[in-house]
Specification:
EC 3.1.1.-, Methylamine Dehydrogenase, Chain H, mainly beta, four-stranded antiparallel sheet
Length: 339
């Protein structure tokens, strides 16, 4: 959505102290300069750490335990709808009519909901859970579902599990049954966090939080295989805190945030193998999330620990990002979604 030629974004935040955020914030970007401006908050919600928009409305949740009241929230022109989440510390969601899936980091399970024709969540219909662990005794003593993605060209749901070093693919049918069809092992201790697919879903790129590596997986027939692995920051010690990953619309460039080093790492992926281009300072601390504008001209970074959001102009030909010098203040920003 644009208003007076501005680009608008929702901002997910953590609201628990010491943060003073109260829910989902809004910012706008001036496409003539990259200047960022804080707008009125959209809605109050505790720890809305991930957001997803569709033509029907906005989905989020409270990233808290089930005991504290973890719940899914849907906001539309008809108002807000809530459903409880049978899991702890939800961290990611995705939709594909008539379904919505939520990854629960704390309990490791995935909650699947049925949506009506207006996108309102009706009821939970599946609870997906696979036991597992990894060698990192601080972070991998149990499964930790960190991302859910419905594939566009098949009836499959992909689940990225940081705790057990697995990417799982579930096949679903019109009877709302989800069946595990592949459990792809990632390098031990890598801690896969998020992934992005190319347009035809023949290849995907996985950012691994703990090993701070980029892993390429390719579809071979009906299954997926690991084909490449490279460091996000070549020659730099891992801080076990890689975070967000974004693919440019033309599928030439890939960007990943490295929270411990406060960097955005850029790759050229136009060839057979990812080629590291550069690492850019995020002009803040702990870049939890970032996004590319729909027109491809801007990259916007949410720095969680320094409570600021920073804009960069993006060269669509070379993939280079250049700081505009503009930023705005939002306490504990952790998710960015263009409206």
């Amino acid at each position: 959505m644009t208003t007076h030629n501005h680009l608008h974004f929702y901002v997910g935040t953590y609201t628990d102290a010491p943060s003073t955020s109260t829910g989902i914030a809004q910012i706008k970007l001036d496409p003539a300069s990259g200047e960022l401006t804080r707008c009125d908050n959209l809605t109050s919600l505790r720890n809305p750490s991930y957001l997803a928009t569709t033509a029907n409305g906005l989905y989020s949740f409270s990233e808290i335990s089930q005991e504290e009241g973890a719940a899914l929230q849907f906001s539309s022109e008809l108002g807000n709808a809530f459903l409880p989440i049978a899991g702890d510390y939800p961290c990611h969601l995705d939709t594909k009519a008539p379904y919505l899936a939520v990854a629960n980091y704390g309990s490791g399970n995935v909650s699947v909901y049925l949506l009506d024709d207006r996108g309102r969540p009706l009821q939970a219909i599946e609870n997906l859970y696979e036991d597992g662990c990894g060698p990192n005794t601080d972070r991998q003593t149990a499964p930790h579902a960190h991302q859910v993605t419905f594939l566009a060209h098949s009836n499959q749901l992909a689940v990225v599990d940081l705790g057990s070093d697995r990417i799982r693919f579930y096949q679903y049918d019109n009877k709302h049954s989800f069946q595990l069809v592949q459990s792809l092992a990632m390098p031990a201790g890598s801690g896969p966090r998020h992934m992005v697919f190319n347009h035809n879903e023949s290849r995907a790129y996985v950012v691994c939080e703990l090993s701070e590596t980029l892993i390429t997986i390719d579809r071979q027939g009906d299954s997926w295989q690991v084909t490449e692995q490279c460091e996000l920051l070549p020659g730099v010690e891992s801080g076990e805190a890689a975070s967000s990953i974004r693919l440019s619309e033309d599928e030439k460039y890939l960007y990943v945030s490295c929270r411990a080093q406060n960097k955005i790492s850029a790759f050229d992926i136009s060839g057979k193998q990812p080629k590291h281009l550069n690492a850019y300072d995020c002009h803040g601390q702990f870049p939890r999330d970032f996004t590319l504008s729909e027109d491809g001209r801007w990259l916007i970074v949410a720095n969680q620990h320094s409570n600021n959001i920073v804009s960069y102009h993006r060269n669509q030909e070379t993939g280079e990002i250049i700081p505009t010098g503009y930023q705005c203040s939002v306490d504990a920003p952790v998710c960015l979604v263009e409206i």
